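Quick one: structure for this chain?
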Amino acid sequence: MITRDEAWNLLNGYIKNQKMIYHSLSSEAVLRALARRLDRDEEKWALTGLLHDIDVEVTNADPKVHSLKARELLKDFDLDEDVLDAISMHNEMATGLQRETEFQHALAAGETITGLIYATALVYPDRKIAPVKPKSIVKRMKQKAFAASVNRDIIMECEKIGIPLQEFVEISLNAMKEIGEEIGL
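Got it. Here's what it folds into:
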């Protein structure tokens, strides 16, 4: 498996948009926390979260090819097949397949909730993540007009990995709070 430093350098070679870097760091933190909760390989899951959108700028986020190009970019690096598979499957539109494995569901739900958490923090007066409470995130889940581009159905895939929404929100929010400064919050 490639090291975190190698993955970080690789990511920065492809991603220039600071918000995408924040999203990648947030996804890394959330996936690490989910791995800890599910007793999975924390380093593997964290690296997957960090690298999952490596192709977003190369593909202009085109849903027909985004994630497939990532697999191509990463295939020559020392990454397990299930990592490449989870990265490919976080965008079902490109693959034409449905997510089936715990790892696939965890990445999709984990990377998606970061957007809702980020948007929630930005409506707070100080625009910081520290005062955000889990109940605020759960409340925003029900407000379809809030952060309308965040797919709530994908977030609900947390239940397919055995973590109820409330707990999933707490895990994800706490993971992002730990790196608040790094992600501009």
